[in-house]
Structures are given as structure tokens and as C-alpha cells.
């Protein structure tokens, strides 16, 4: 089959078996290596991408479900302002996760912050449970996510204030 979808903001098409998993398409056809493999069974959380606004395991997503959808991988997300909020907080809290876990960890944090602007520590720990990473549930990552939430709120508040200030 031929599936047409939007990948990191660009219209793309791929011809392959309808059941081929998205992770293979990303890594092999599009050379997007930021999405990592692992268990291949929806267990480790290393292969996360956004499908429209939904965080999904790309190892479990067959190509036939991509038609007309927007797929955002870590390569697309790093170009956003939202990514900078998270990166800044991770650096400030010394989150030095390995290359295998970091992309999915960042996308999971974004999925949480998109839903909850001020998540509690309990909510953060529960949300990141699906990422099998040494940071999952650690106080360090919880503090980093809280800081990212604060950073984002401050940035958005600053933008609003500037817009208000600019009015005559
Ligand atoms: S590779 Fe482990 S959840 Fe997809």
C-alpha cells in the first residue's frame, strides 16, 4: 500500500506492506535514527513518537494507520520552543540520560506538559512509568519536569506580557 502522511511538518509517502511498523519506516526509509528500538512489543517505551497529539509506541503502529496523520519524531520536536523548555530544565537538573532513552523521555515529558501545565510530583512519576529508564520515578527527573513546567509558564506569561505591553 501507499500511505501519505505528514512527517515532522513535511508531506511524505511510503509504499510498503500495510502492517510494517512505523519505527522501521522512520529508521530505514527516512533515516530518522532518533526513534530507538528496543523490545518491539510496546514494553520499553523507547520508540515513542507523536501521532497527531497522541503519544504512541511506533513499534506497534502499522503503516496503514498513518494515512492523513501527522507524525512528529524527536527530530521534529527539537525544532520547537516547547523542546527548549524541557532541554533547559534537563540541563539545569543534570539529567544525563543515555541516547537510547532520552528521545522518548523528552517526548513523554512533552505529552504530559501538553495536558497538565502544573503536574504534581505524583502525576509526573505515574506518567513516566512507561519509560523504562533509570531516571523513571527518580526525584531528579520529577524536579526536572516541574522546572520545565515552570519555565514554560514563565515563557508564555512573558510572551503575553510583551504583547500586552506593545499595545498603545
Ligand atoms: S521498542 Fe519497546 S515499546 Fe517500542
Please give a handful of descriptors for the protein shown.
168 residues, Ubiquitin-like (UB roll), DNA polymerase, domain 1, five-stranded mixed β-sheet, globular, binds FE2/S2 (inorganic) cluster
Describe this protein's structure.
- The chain is of the alpha+beta class.
- It has two domains: 2-73, Beta-grasp domain (Ubiquitin-like (UB roll)); 81-166, [2Fe-2S]-binding domain (DNA polymerase, domain 1, Orthogonal Bundle).
- 43% of the residues lie in helices and 14% in strands.
- The protein contains six helices and five strands, in the order E-E-H-E-E-E-H-H-H-H-H.
- The protein has helices spanning 22-29, 74-77, 81-92, 102-115, 121-127, 139-166; strands at 2-7, 10-15, 48-51, 54-57, 70-72.
- Strands 2-1-5-3-4 form a five-stranded mixed beta sheet, sandwiched between helices.
- Strand 1 (2-7) and strand 2 form a beta hairpin.
- The chain is globular and about 45 Å long.
- 35% of the residues are buried.
- The mean pLDDT is 92.
- The structure holds FE2/S2 (inorganic) cluster.
- FE2/S2 (inorganic) cluster (FES) is lined by residues 37-40, 42-47, 57, 59.
Amino acid at each position: 500500500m501507499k500511505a501519505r502522511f505528514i512527517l515532522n511538518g513535511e508531506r511524505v509517502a511510503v509504499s510498503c506492506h500495510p502492517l510494517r511498523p512505523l519505527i522501521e519506516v522512520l529508521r530505514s526509509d527516512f533515516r530518522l535514527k532518533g526513534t530507538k528500538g528496543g523490545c518491539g512489543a510496546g514494553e520499553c517505551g523507547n520508540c515513542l513518537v507523536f501521532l497527531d497529539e497522541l503519544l504512541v509506541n511506533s513499534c506497534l503502529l502499522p503503516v496503514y494507520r498513518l494515512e492523513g496523520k501527522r507524525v512528529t519524531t524527536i527530530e521534529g520536536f527539537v525544532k520547537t520552543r516547547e523542546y527548549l523548555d524541557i532541554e533547559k530544565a534537563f540541563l539545569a537538573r543534570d539529567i544525563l540520560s543515555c541516547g537510547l532513552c532520552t528521545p522518548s523521555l523528552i517526548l513523554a515529558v512533552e505529552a504530559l506538559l501538553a495536558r497538565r501545565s502544573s503536574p504534581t510530583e505524583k502525576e509526573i512519576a505515574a506518567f513516566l512509568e512507561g519509560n523504562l529508564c533509570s531516571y523513571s520515578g527518580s526525584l531528579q527527573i520529577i524536579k526536572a519536569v516541574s522546572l520545565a513546567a515552570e519555565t514554560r509558564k514563565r515563557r508564555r506569561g512573558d510572551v503575553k506580557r510583551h504583547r500586552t505591553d506593545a499595545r498603545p
